[in-house]
From TrEMBL:
Residues 239-604 form the TonB-dependent receptor-like beta-barrel domain. Its main location: membrane. Keywords: Cell outer membrane, Ion transport, Membrane, Receptor, Signal, TonB box, Transmembrane, Transmembrane beta strand, Transport. Residues 56-159 form the TonB-dependent receptor plug domain. It comes from the Bacteria. Belongs to the TonB-dependent receptor family. It is found in: Cell outer membrane. This is TonB-dependent receptor. It comes from Thermomonas beijingensis. Residues 1-29 form the signal peptide. It is a multi-pass membrane protein. Gene3D superfamilies: TonB-dependent receptor, beta-barrel domain, TonB-dependent receptor, plug domain. SUPFAM superfamilies: Porins. InterPro entries: Beta-barrel_TonB, Beta-barrel_TonB_sf, Plug_dom, Plug_dom_sf, TonB-dep_rcpt-like.
């Protein structure tokens, strides 16, 4: 058994990552010609109002469409893997169940939004990241740290908002892409946007399919099976587990006057997933999000916005061709928000949120239905006083099942000399149990309590022309943390958990070179009394790192992405260890004509054999060749 203080093994890849992360420090003395574009990007997720990244009083990261196109990622989980504060657990490659842990909190402690609409299953509490098509995404905003005082439940670890594609330029614009790859990967996507002086409309479609791999590594033994991991009857399901996803997105916006802005969006993904199991081995899935907003700006000092949306998560599961069960969940949301500019750089935001979660489970052995509503009022103040910034937020939620819950947050920042900036924050958050945790027969616990959390963070940033370096240190304490106990085969409230972490991120743009480095240290421990006191929370590696290095040479582009993670435990009792790993992705692109780009990617170039979840193999070396058409590029 490893000591709790054991560091990430220094493989050549992890040494490379550590060295790369030191380069922004060297850049302090460099006269970089380019400015790191991320620093002045406008985000809305951190405060629910527009703010630039460098002015935000939170740890944020923006992944834009250019980064997505240039990356080796073929899915949203692959794009997010290894980023600061993020751990991805995947059960067998492309299209397979992927769960995300933000800053050591639980996999259902991160709130996901698509174009402002809350998404995720009300039964499992998870967002089907693997089913959100990467081709439909314009950009992503990642906000690390609690945001319950602005968004309510689920935002203990942070918020990730996905914005679907939209082209704001006047005229007609289009894009298309086709790709082939290992394991019979096939991808195709296209979109068109028509935009006039007062509005526009756009349509995007995409297809992705793969034969997959044989991911299951465990054999079923009734005497030792603990209800976790992949276990099948020996000699069965020794086949590939394929995946298919067809998606479409439409959007329209219209400005009848300078004071009014109307917007509507809808996305739908329909897919089929094969996997290994003795009771269920394939699923038909539907992921759908529909939303619209109306914004009224009667003056420069006042803005009102009404947003409505619905997310549907539908999974029909089979054993072969025999129906097993079906989970249909919906999340209906409404929000009315008012922003008042009290004075220069002084903004007051107030609003009302409404949420209704519903679930209907069709199962021959354990059907159930559930529904609950939540109403909330919130207020936020943002002010700038010379070199100092202040943010105060307060929210009260009234839940049909668990009653009232008040959360708050405060953050302060100050610009110092020579490009230095310091920020400090403290916030509270909460999470209500999911419907499965409460009601699913044979694997639930109706006595579960809501989880409560309080977090503190201190950040130090230094930036200049073309570079930025940021260090974040945080501590989160969670009371009544809900965790799966395989020995009891049900979720239980861990009396308390303490999570401490440090993140170091760096961005450097120097001539034709672009470097992004991210390094995370994490200590997430069970603090409850009993045999598990002091043990690490399951599925959280203590160390992780990511490096993205790219260079453009004329019409050519080259890049690598390295990801390394330390070992982690796969169970509450810390008895099942999953080893650490390091992988390297490589890519090359050629702009063969105006608007046309040919790109070749190698994922897991050294064919590393590893797991992120016990008993589920990850793919070995894979290749992708794509051709992209974007005439305005």
């Amino acid at each position: 058994m490893q000591s709790r203080n054991t560091l990430l093994r220094l493989s050549p890849l992890s040494c490379t990552l550590a060295l790369a992360l030191s380069l922004p420090g060297i850049a302090f003395a460099a006269d970089a010609a380019n400015t790191a574009k991320d620093l002045d990007k406008v985000i809305v997720t951190a405060t629910r109002t527009p703010a630039t990244v460098d002015a935000a009083l939170a740890a944020v990261e923006v992944i834009d469409r250019a980064q997505i196109d240039a990356s080796s990622a073929r899915s949203l989980p692959e794009l997010l893997r290894g980023r600061a504060g993020i751990t991805l657990i995947n059960q067998g490659g492309l299209g397979k169940l992927s769960t995300l842990f933000m800053r050591g909190t639980e996999s259902d402690h991160t709130l996901f939004l698509i174009d402002g609409v809350r998404v995720g299953s009300t039964t499992s509490g998870l967002t089907s990241l693997q089913d959100i098509p990467l081709a439909q995404i314009d950009h992503i905003e990642i906000v690390r740290g609690p945001r319950s005082s602005l968004y309510g439940a689920d935002a203990i670890g942070g918020v990730i908002q996905i914005f679907t594609r939209r082209d704001s330029r006047a005229g007609t614009h289009g894009h298309a892409r086709i790709a082939i790859g290992s394991n019979h990967l096939r991808e195709a996507s296209a979109g068109v946007e028509l935009r006039g002086a007062r509005g526009g409309v756009g349509v995007d479609v995409a297809h992705q399919s793969t034969a997959g791999i044989n991911a299951c590594l465990g054999d079923y033994n009734p005497a030792t099976w603990a209800g976790a991991g992949c276990f099948i009857v020996p000699g069965t399901h020794l086949d590939r587990d394929g995946y298919r996803n067809n998606s479409a997105g439409v959007h329209a916006d219209f400005s009848p006057s300078t004071a009014w802005q109307l917007d509507a969006r809808a996305t739908r993904a329909i897919g089929h997933n094969d996997y290994d199991g003795n009771y269920v081995d394939n699923s038909d899935i539907v992921q759908q999000t529909v939303g619209g907003s109306a914004r009224w700006t009667p003056s420069q000092r006042v803005q009102l916005k009404l947003t409505l949306g619905r997310n549907t998560d539908d999974s029909v599961n089979y054993l072969g061709t025999v129906f097993s069960n079906r989970f249909v969940t919906t999340r209906d949301t409404g929000n009315l928000q008012a922003d008042f500019t009290l004075a220069q750089a002084q903004v007051l935001t107030t609003g009302f949120d409404w949420l209704r979660d519903a679930a209907a489970t069709q199962d021959p052995w354990s059907p159930f239905t559930a529904r609950r509503g939540n109403r909330a009022g919130f207020a936020q103040y943002q002010g700038t006083f010379g070199k100092q910034d202040l943010q105060l937020s307060l929210r009260h939620d009234d839940n049909d099942q668990f009653g009232g819950h008040t959360t708050g947050g405060m953050a302060w920042g100050m610009n110092l000399a020579a490009g230095w900036r310091v920020t400090a924050s403290h916030a509270t958050a909460f999470k209500a149990p999911t419907f499965n945790e409460l009601y699913y027969p044979g694997a639930s616990n109706p006595l579960l309590l809501p989880e409560d959390a309080r977090s503190s963070e201190l950040s130090l940033t230094r930036s200049g022309d073309g570079w930025q370096l940021q260090a974040n240190a945080y501590q989160t304490r969670v009371s009544d943390l809900i965790a799966w106990d395989s020995s009891q085969f049900k979720p239980v409230n861990v009396d308390s958990a303490r999570i401490r972490g440090v993140e170091l991120t760096g961005v450097l743009a120097l001539g034709d070179w672009s470097l992004r480095g991210q390094l995370s240290w994490l200590d997430a421990r069970n603090q409850s009394a009993g045999t598990n006191h002091g043990k690490q929370l399951a599925r959280r590696p203590t160390r992780s790192a990511r490096l993205d290095l790219d260079r453009d040479i004329g019409d050519w582009g080259f890049g690598i992405s390295g990801i390394a993670e330390a070992s982690r435990w796969d169970d509450v009792a810390n008895s099942l260890r999953v080893g650490g790993y390091g992988t390297l992705d490589a890519r090359a692109s050629w702009r063969l004509a105006k608007g046309w780009t040919l790109q070749a990617n190698v994922v897991n170039a050294f064919d590393k054999r590893y797991q992120t979840s016990a008993w589920y193999a990850q793919p070995g070396r894979e290749y992708t060749l794509s051709l992209r058409w974007q005439p305005d590029q």
